[in-house]
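Q: Hi! First time doing this. I have a protein sequence and I read that you can turn it into a structure. Is that right? Here it is:
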Amino acid sequence: MKNNKHFYKITSLVLLVASLAMVLGANKTQATVPPALGTYLAGIKNSDWVVMALGAMNQTPGDTNFLKTIDGQSANDYSTYILALTAIGKDPRNFGLENLVNSLRQKASAGQLGDPTLLNDDMFGLIALVSAGVPVSDALIASEANYIKSKQLTDGSWDFTASATIGSVDMTAMGIMALRAAGVGVSDPALIKAVAYLSGAQKDDGGFPLMPGGLSNTESTAWVLSALYALGDNPDFWAPQNASPDDYLLAQIQSAGHAGFDASAKTITGRTPTTTAYAAIALAGKYYPIKILPPPAAVNIRIEGKDATVCATPSEGYNALDVVQNTASVCNYTYHIQDTQYGPYLDKINNDAAAGFVGWSFLVNNQALQVGAADYQVKSGDNILLYYGNWDDLPLRLTITPVAVALNGSTAVTVEKFDYNKNSWLAAPTAQIKRGSETITTDSAGKANITWPLAGSFELWAQAVNMVRSAKVTIIAGDSGQQQSLGLSVNIAPPGSGASGNNPPPTDSVVFGVSGDLNFGTLTPGASATKTATLNNSGPTNINTTASVSGSAVFKNNLKLDSLAVPSWQKKLNAGAQAVVNVTLSVPASFIGSGQEQGSLIFWANVAP
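A: Yes, that's right. Below is the predicted 3D structure, encoded as structure tokens:
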């Protein structure tokens, strides 16, 4: 016999907490999912909710290729695809050509996801990110949980809009699951109030209506049952008249295997697969997210192509091949992976395709992989070098002292190669050091001395035959007489103050100015904003301009000029000309912390040859 639920029908918050704690200690029972339900769902194609349900029942879905191309652009579209993929153990960062996790995070603004008039996309978005391995300590997860709490109505309910004054059973159940996914404890006042609201809405048939006082329906009941499992609750304690939520759901399963929307619905409609999926997930004892992937490892990756560096950026992934796929949208490169009898094989990035003995090789912490890239499980802090060349090419390392030098001063440069056999760095004689179109050759000890007759910001790298191009090193030469700067400012939620500019006077040799407001306002992790700066060459000669960033690491690591990393950006201005530069700041999704960040964007100019 099912236990009566009357002890939930109380108004005292203290007693309700005690009741919930008592339920948590009880042994849970779970209904058996009717086999016909699984058979019906297995025949449904191209449904993200059905994929979730089959994952919840540990059934392998059929063709999931439709999940490789997102079918909409809303936050909810991305969230349900992410939830479908994680339910079957697939990484939504690289299942298709788009990193769905990054794309969803880009929809964050002012501490919430997606459409600011909606609340359901915040709930689904939070749950989706957690399912993809984003930790509950992540700043966006924490801000979303607080945002959802702030939208709870006085009766403990939520609705799908942010401005609602009347809540619904469905969204209250989903709100519970979102907060639980964010790590909110079951004794939190917001959850206690939500449980009380649901308790008052249940019908004697064991089901739940969309709104208190209405008729029970399958979808509302399924989401409430899933929410109870998220709370660690026992549905047997939710059984007025000895009928529990799972009893109601089982009664709606038709002989053909589908679930009717309510007790009067018998025929199949376009909504039936989704209704049935909700019921299957709940009857399987699951809640949202169905599964949670482990957090991907935070790594650094550098990709060296045949003629130039393709990418150098922090990234994340589960294996080395994941990282390449996850980073493609960040660094704007294309790739091709070939399925072979030995496993996936990366054979092309951009236009550099494998041919003969030349192709793409992985080094992790300067060591060649002993297994395929898809089989190498990366660890946090790994440095991945992917290069185009021979499999036994040696990586180069460039060391320069100092990295800031006075005009006509000099720097000491050392180039080394990594010896795999000795597991150490050795001198690289006759290596070429590239400074623009100029080449400097190292001596027998791998050293060179470089002077700096022009002011500006310069990138240097080393290269040699049968060696892998080194990482680039930025050198700033000259004094402030040939530079102009703008103040950078951003507030990582909460709101902050504006930015200020700093415009030193130009020298007589180069006359140029910079104007613009680079106060990015308030951004949350995963969000980005673009401002503009205007360069003005008011002198009589053509100039080349480069740039560098000082101040907060948020700006140093994440600022782009005209979609290029700052060290890679340069622009030529003819005498008397102006140019507008797009300055974009993207706050990393993994950023932890809040408050005002400051920095300066410095533009350097020298006479163009």
